[in-house]
Amino acid sequence: MPSKTLRSATFLTALLVPASALALPEGEGRELVQGVCGSCHGTSVIERSSGYSREDWRYLTSTMLDLSNNEEGQDKILDYLASTFPPSTNRASTQVRGPLTLRFEEWQVPTLGQRSRDPVEAPDGSIWWVGQWRDILGRLNPQTGEMEEFRLPAGAKPHSVSIGPNGMAWYTGNRNATIGRFDPATKTITEFPMPDKTARDPHTAEFDANGTLWFSLQGSNMIGRLDPETGEVRLVRSPRPNSRPYGVKIAADGIIWVACNGANCLLRIDPDTMEVTEITLPEKGTTVRRLDIDADGDIWWVNSGLGRLGRYRPAKGEITEWASPSGPRSHPYAIAIFDGAVWYNESGVRPDMLVRFDPETETFQSWPIPSGPIHAGILRHMRTTLDRQALLIHQSGTNNIARVTVVRDQAIP
């Protein structure tokens, strides 16, 4: 939680912002909102919201910072937000109802404003996450609700966390060009720097069956491999300029598949030679945040740029797409194969929708993702628990992580 000194400095900063620098609409309290909210994120985030009531704005801001020491300032901020950005349908999602019921279990992480994300389960049942904006690695005991947070090297800005075969937590240092290893027993951190100065932003990582860590470097346009035994890091470039490698998944045959967030392609990496092959997707405007692989070896991917769900069948070279329920601007983001279906979210609409697609019937069902008593977004990555009985998701805008299960033949408690 921000210190009183930091909060006071933030309010002082708000008073020093020149009116000419403000992008928000006119209104009393605009300068304060620009200074307080804009000190952590762009005000365009506020303008892109669907709007909230005053009480809902109170809850949403409380998930980001503590304003209780300045009641007058807090009232001005809430009055401005509620009057300028009331509830609206400017980004309304399209919900598809169906037969399944879900249970959402939520936990709000201790340090506000950290942008908690990418929860993953360890073999002992604990759930780990990273707080990208505050250089935090966290651990949750879902049975008791107890949470611990560990400080990572300043400026690491961890983007994702994975659990290695030996139970250690590995994170991607997205801003300090490292892969980090955290030992839960000793609380020690070992950093593995990138061997190339142009490899600046490790992004998403996954372990293969041999315990090798594969990772993307989005802005650097690279894919990397780290051998935990030797610490050796090898890098290769994507053959497609500005393809922005993003999501990573590893097939049962050992092939590494990477999504292209900057181009209409998927990348196939040979685990032995690290040769990269591009699979070009049909339409320009296609961008792919993430992907997953089903039991048949088919690659499922979100077409974030065009608002679709896609499937690539490597054995046949066949590509099929389905329009997402909320339309071309729905910006599908995270994706996972779970409970015999394909699950993803629509991050470009409000509420942020969790969508289930049944490949057998080619039908959808969707649910608004809660952020406490409101719907605020955004889900950026999802994975299943180790027993594949639940989805682990998050809402980085409200510093929540959550576990989702399908309720069968029983009432929700």
From TrEMBL:
UniProt keyword Signal, yes or no: yes
Signal peptide positions on this chain: 1-23
UniProt keywords, alphabetically: Signal
PANTHER family, per database record: VIRGINIAMYCIN B LYASE (PTHR40274)
Protein name: Cytochrome C
